[in-house]
TrEMBL record:
Superkingdom field: Bacteria
SUPFAM superfamilies from the UniProt entry: VC0467-like
Lineage of producing organism: Bacteria, Pseudomonadati, Bacteroidota, Chitinophagia, Chitinophagales
PANTHER family: UNCHARACTERIZED PROTEIN YQGE, UPF0301 PROTEIN YQGE
Cellular component annotations (GO), alphabetically ordered: cytosol
Protein name: YqgE/AlgH family protein
Pfam families for the chain: DUF179
Organism: Chitinophaga barathri
Record family assignment: Belongs to the UPF0301 (AlgH) family.
Entry-linked InterPro entries: AlgH-like
Length: 148
């Protein structure tokens, strides 16, 4: 497995946090795996959070159950948002979030360019491989995390 792939939960994960989830894997190595649920919107928009109350409405997604005290983001505009870590296929994780917020607010960045998450998903080394082997996840064909 490698970063940049999509996984879809199977019926084995119904009635759990991951039921009907589409996951985008951003890291996979000897430390474990990291990813974000890309198809479940959070109940509030970015502008509904106190720190960002003066910006335009912009969706947040529930990235996962881990560290829901922090925001994370994927983008595909390294020319505008510096400091991101390449994931795959012109998708970057993180970077200068304050710059990204300004670009969202002036409509330079749209939902086609950036996706903001509260929390993330994490697995220990080989844990995700075990979940795949038991049938909890299925690999999806390549896609675009900004279109889901």
């Amino acid at each position: 497995m490698k970063p940049g792939i999509f996984l879809k939960s199977t019926s084995l994960l119904d009635n759990t946090f991951f039921g009907t989830s589409v996951m985008y894997i951003t890291e996979y190595n000897e430390k474990g795996a990291m990813g974000f649920v890309v198809n479940k919107k959070f109940s509030r928009n970015l502008n509904e959070l106190e720190e960002f109350k003066h910006i335009l409405p912009f969706p947040i997604y529930v990235g996962g159950p881990v560290d829901q005290e922090h925001l994370y983001f994927l983008h595909r505009r390294p020319d505008l948002v510096t400091g991101g870590e390449p994931v795959a296929d012109n998708v970057f994780l993180g970077g200068d979030f304050q710059a990204a917020v300004k670009l969202i607010n002036n409509n330079t960045l749209t939902a086609n360019d950036i996706k903001v998450f509260i929390g993330y998903c994490g697995w220990d080394y080989r844990e995700l491989d075990q979940e795949l082997a038991e049938g909890s996840w299925q690999l999806l064909e390549a896609g675009n995390p900004f279109s889901l």
